[in-house]
């Protein structure tokens, strides 16, 4: 008789997978991908290390799922900020501010997503999501051009520049090494966010806001 997996067993497997993903996410948020050891994840999830490899082919596959989950949350927040009232420039300001403020509130996870040296598989995921951010920005820039609040120019190139500018400007403040040496106060963080938003908006519109 062919083996048939029962509903109870499917639920048990799904629950184990959920715990593995949640515990891996917590480990990355605490110390980045490099500190997320399979043995520690297994211990936190209450499973054997072999169980992890029954759900994920490799450590890189597990990390790729965490990367996709975490980054999609941030992309969705940017999309929400771009869907608020106001002209395109105002909405872009909201989105840029959302991006930077959320990164500074969760610096280790943000560092892991933006700049931590990672395996090629995760680097590919990073490029996919940088493009996702750029597509949202591009749409808003095109709307701004149509509204007349943003000068006519290459919206696709500008959107890519926005993603690069905001990510690069956060690398230093988010870096675990530099952050431990130069702890930012809330005032410092607010100034940093304001500076990033101002720079990006001025680059898009050519005027001060």
Automatic annotation (TrEMBL):
<dbReference type="InterPro" id="IPR036271">
    <property type="entry name" value="Tet_transcr_reg_TetR-rel_C_sf"/>
</dbReference>
<dbReference type="GO" id="GO:0003700">
    <property type="term" value="F:DNA-binding transcription factor activity"/>
</dbReference>
<dbReference type="GO" id="GO:0000976">
    <property type="term" value="F:transcription cis-regulatory region binding"/>
</dbReference>
<dbReference type="InterPro" id="IPR009057">
    <property type="entry name" value="Homeodomain-like_sf"/>
</dbReference>
<dbReference type="Pfam" id="PF00440">
    <property type="entry name" value="TetR_N"/>
</dbReference>
<dbReference type="InterPro" id="IPR050109">
    <property type="entry name" value="HTH-type_TetR-like_transc_reg"/>
</dbReference>
<feature type="domain" description="HTH tetR-type">
    <location>
        <begin position="14"/>
        <end position="74"/>
    </location>
</feature>
<feature type="DNA-binding region" description="H-T-H motif">
    <location>
        <begin position="37"/>
        <end position="56"/>
    </location>
</feature>
<dbReference type="InterPro" id="IPR001647">
    <property type="entry name" value="HTH_TetR"/>
</dbReference>
<protein>
    <submittedName>
        <fullName>TetR family transcriptional regulator</fullName>
    </submittedName>
</protein>
<keyword id="KW-0238">DNA-binding</keyword>
């Amino acid at each position: 008789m062919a083996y048939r997996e029962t509903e109870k067993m499917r639920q048990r497997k799904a629950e184990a997978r959920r715990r593995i993903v949640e515990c891996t996410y917590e480990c990355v948020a605490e110390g980045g991908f490099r500190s997320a050891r399979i043995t520690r994840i297994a211990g936190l999830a209450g499973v054997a290390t072999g169980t992890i490899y029954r759900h994920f082919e490799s450590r890189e596959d597990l990390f790729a799922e965490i990367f996709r989950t975490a980054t999609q949350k941030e992309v969705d927040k940017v999309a929400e900020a771009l869907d608020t009232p106001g002209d395109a420039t105002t909405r872009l300001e909201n989105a840029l501010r959302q991006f930077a403020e959320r990164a500074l509130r969760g610096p280790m996870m943000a560092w892991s997503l933006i700049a931590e040296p990672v395996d090629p598989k995760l680097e590919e995921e990073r490029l996919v999501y940088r493009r996702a951010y750029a597509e949202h920005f591009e749409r808003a820039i095109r709307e701004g051009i149509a509204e007349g609040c943003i000068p006519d120019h290459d919206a696709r190139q500008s959107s890519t520049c926005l993603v690069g500018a905001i990510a690069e400007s956060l690398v230093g403040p988010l870096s675990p090494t530099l952050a431990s040496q130069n702890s930012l106060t809330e005032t410092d963080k607010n100034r940093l966010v304001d500076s990033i938003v101002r720079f990006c908006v001025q680059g898009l519109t050519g005027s001060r806001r």
